[in-house]
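ARCHIVE CARD
Drawer: 12
Card no.: 0347
Subject: one protein chain, sequence and derived structure
Cross-reference: see card 0346
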Amino acid sequence: MKGGLWLALWFLASGSEAASAQTASTPPTPAEPAPVLGTHPIRLELGGYFHHVDRGLGNWRGLEAQLWIPTNPRFIPVFLVDSQTRPTGTQQTYGFFSYLNWTDSFYTTQGFSLSPRRNDTAVYFPDQRYDIKAHWKVPPQKNLVLAGGYTYYDLGSQGHGKIFNVGTIYYHEKLVLEGNVFINRNQPGALVSASGSLAAQYGIEGHYWAGVVLSGGRELYQSVSFQPIDINFSSYSARAFYRKWLSRHLGVVVFFDYQDKLEAYRRVGVSSRIFFEF
């Protein structure tokens, strides 16, 4: 099985994905293959994003940074920072994510994020979020991976929730396919909703990756601003990306995003990052 190391979409909630402070976004599908055993170069990735949102919500923009340290073949830590600005203000989120290769056939991904509040009008990320996901490579070829995960997020006075996730990844030469189903249980109200995602990508590590991620489902949570009100609407989104190595130590990645929360708003955006490997 041929596979690269990097994820193009964050496992933790990121500014370009978070749509509301009242409900945690479904964890995005990884847009590049899972890590293989062996050492890889350290990567520093810096960039930003700009999204236009209709219905008077204005433009959302942000800066982000990622530091990958894959010098140990068993444990790969990643440090993440995102600063997002909307017309209502700016908020930062700080995350830690890691791969842990237990055996040649089993690995886990785990992480957490913290998002300090400056004021109650600029809350775009969960106050706290914790994630863990287990992956098993099915023998003998090990090109099929079965996965299951759990997420807990805390939204402060707005509530908290849990996300249960099952998925699969299939590798075939330069092609990688992935599917996930998410079950989200929000409090207050013990409200349950579901969503799913499909991803396809093509390429090879060190040269290029190109892919698309499609996701959709229903968001269901209880607003407690004045009195309990159940919020219930459908949403779907699409993201395309292209990652290109310009040299052995330098490359760029570009994302194009579209999201439609059918009863709420539409969001269209572009993101770009430059990465250095050393």
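Annotation on reverse: The two ends are 25 Å apart (CA to CA). The chain has no helices and 14 strands.
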